[in-house]
Write a structure and sequence with these properties.
Largest sheet: 8 strands, mixed
Strand order of the largest sheet: 3-4-2-5-1-6-7-8
Distance between the termini: 56 Å
Low-confidence stretches: 82-87, 446-531
Number of helices: 15
Length: 531
């Protein structure tokens, strides 16, 4: 087995995202072993890595409709009007917003996103050409990258979708990019005015939301006058009619400052959700990791086996046609000269069989090679249709040896009990990583973690305050004066009864458990926002 070198892409991901994150650091180790397995099977090359199948950034996407609510939110929350470049929010294309150091604000074209494996739209041009041939030449008209100097962008990315009423992206490309954005996002802020757009403009977004139905991922923001209380009933009914069952509403007023006291309760709730996307990102990557492992046994190998069976059937059928033609000639020879009687000759018969076998073996191998070219083209088409990076034809080509062409085996080269055991081990490891993350947030109890347990703050972006350790309980102090000690009794005297202990003042220690989902404030609920 040839040892695969560490991909520079995976090394870069490990350096940027996993150094201070125990969960991602362990995930990188599992990914290295998964890359080795796919490399041994022939699915990927030495420099490829399955880590590029998803973005490792925590991502927040924003969907806005016909009003200025989404644009004003982005401008004020990210303080984009202070940036030297990109002072206006983009309304007609997908915009990725990333943190940069001061005075380095710039707008980069879509090709910068397409070429960078660390960013959300890596190699998206291939998918664009798949749904709209030739459209990848206009990729700069569809997506862009903005670097903005604002601390709220640290350790995360924002993606703003085009305003649905001003969208100029072709519909097939828009549907592809919108679904891709929602799939890779850890938090999606959907402004309610989006649902006032034309049905064909928002149908793909509605379909993506309905498919996931994740209340932890989608937050619906209603733009309301500052003097009105939030009434979510009409929106609940409207979204229910669209098939959206899990809804979490927040009321914000775009008529006043985003950080006005009227918006403060909603902004507080929103910040709580944003501060936890690092944790959600970890679970998303673990889910992708486990899916990549399953895909080998559920997608790649079945596709290759199916192609191999078809190849064997075609090659065998072609060889049988040639044998049938030879048999026909033998029948004519029997009619003319009694050929079959010659086959019973102890010398001529075996020589004929040896000659026939020596003729058919190279003929069958030649036919198999011709049929293999057709199968390779078919597998390449399937690879494009499945939109996968794995080279299915590379695994199939390992079967193009003379011995495997003659034998009826349809099992891909390298797919054996040892390989299956390695995959099962990776599946167990990936699930143990999820259990480890659950332990770090103490899903299974309030008891204090052991010193070796890593705090949940390792999974939350740096701006989230660390959990405060519980204070040491103060010993109870008796409120009554200490009784005067009695003289030591002699062996013949009865011991004096001990005074009853005074009731101790109860001190309840603060639990050390960090809540995964903080309790939302309920006091002064003037905005009537559902909690």
């Amino acid at each position: 087995m040839t040892k695969k070198t560490l991909s520079k892409h995976l090394a870069g991901i490990e350096k940027q995202f996993a150094q201070d994150n125990p969960a991602l650091r362990e995930a990188v180790k599992v990914l290295q072993e998964l890359d080795q397995i796919e490399y041994d099977l022939g699915l990927i090359d030495d420099e490829d890595t399955t880590a590029t199948k998803t973005t490792w950034w925590p991502i927040i996407s924003i969907i806005g409709g016909s009003t200025q609510a989404a644009s004003r939110f982005i401008q004020e929350y990210i303080d984009i009007h202070q940036a030297r470049m990109g002072a206006q929010t983009t309304r007609h294309k997908f915009a990725v917003m990333q943190y940069c150091t001061p005075n380095n604000d710039v707008i980069l074209p879509g090709t910068a996103l397409d070429a960078d494996h660390r960013l959300p739209f890596h190699s998206i041009s291939k998918e664009i050409d798949r749904v709209s041939p030739g459209s990848s030449q206009q990729i700069n008209a569809f997506i862009e990258l903005k670097t903005i100097s604002n601390d709220r962008l640290k350790d995360k990315l924002f993606i703003q979708l085009p305003h649905l009423t001003e969208n100029t992206v072709p519909k097939p490309v828009f549907n592809l990019l919108a679904k891709h954005t929602i799939d890779i996002s850890d938090l999606v802020l959907v402004f309610a005015d989006s649902f006032n757009a034309e049905p064909e403009a928002i149908e793909e977004i509605i379909r993506a939301i309905v498919e996931q139905q994740d209340s932890n991922k989608f937050v619906f923001i209603i733009d309301q006058p500052p003097s009105n209380k939030l009434d979510v009933s009409p929106w609940q009914r409207k979204l229910d009619d669209l098939g959206i069952k899990t809804t979490d509403f927040i009321g914000l007023s775009s008529q006043i400052s985003l950080f006005d006291p009227v918006n403060a309760p909603s902004i507080s709730i929103l910040n709580q959700r944003i501060n936890k996307i690092g944790l959600y990102r970890n679970y998303r990557i673990m889910n992708t990791l486990e899916k990549n492992i399953r895909d080998i046994t559920e997608v790649f190998i079945p596709e290759i086996v199916e192609a191999t069976v078809l190849w064997k059937e075609r090659s065998t059928f072609s060889s049988l046609l040639i044998l049938g033609f030879i048999a026909t000639l033998m029948l004519f020879a029997e009619i003319q000269i009694g050929f079959f009687a010659m086959l019973f000759d102890p010398i001529i018969g075996p020589l004929f069989l040896v000659a026939l076998t020596g003729f058919m073996i190279p003929v069958h191998i030649g036919i198999s090679k011709l049929q293999a070219k057709l199968i390779i083209g078919r597998l390449n088409d399937r690879q494009k249709a499945l939109n996968i990076m794995e080279n299915l034809s590379g695994v199939f080509e390992k079967s193009l040896t003379s011995m495997r062409m003659l034998l009826p085996s349809t099992t891909p080269v390298g797919w054996n009990k040892e390989m299956k055991a390695r995959l099962n081990k990776l599946t167990v490891l990936s699930r143990e990583l999820v259990l480890s993350m659950n332990d770090r947030v103490q899903v299974y109890g309030d008891e204090s973690p052991s010193p070796a347990t890593i705090s949940v703050n390792a999974f939350i972006p740096s701006e989230t305050p660390a959990a405060v350790s519980p204070p040491t309980p103060v010993p109870a102090i008796s409120p009554t004066p200490t009784p005067t000690p009695t003289p030591t009794p002699t062996s013949t005297s009865t011991p004096a009864p001990e005074p009853a202990p005074a009731p101790a003042a109860t001190v309840t220690p603060t639990t050390s458990r960090s809540r995964l989902f903080p309790i939302r404030p309920t006091e002064n609920n003037t905005d009537n926002t559902p909690r």
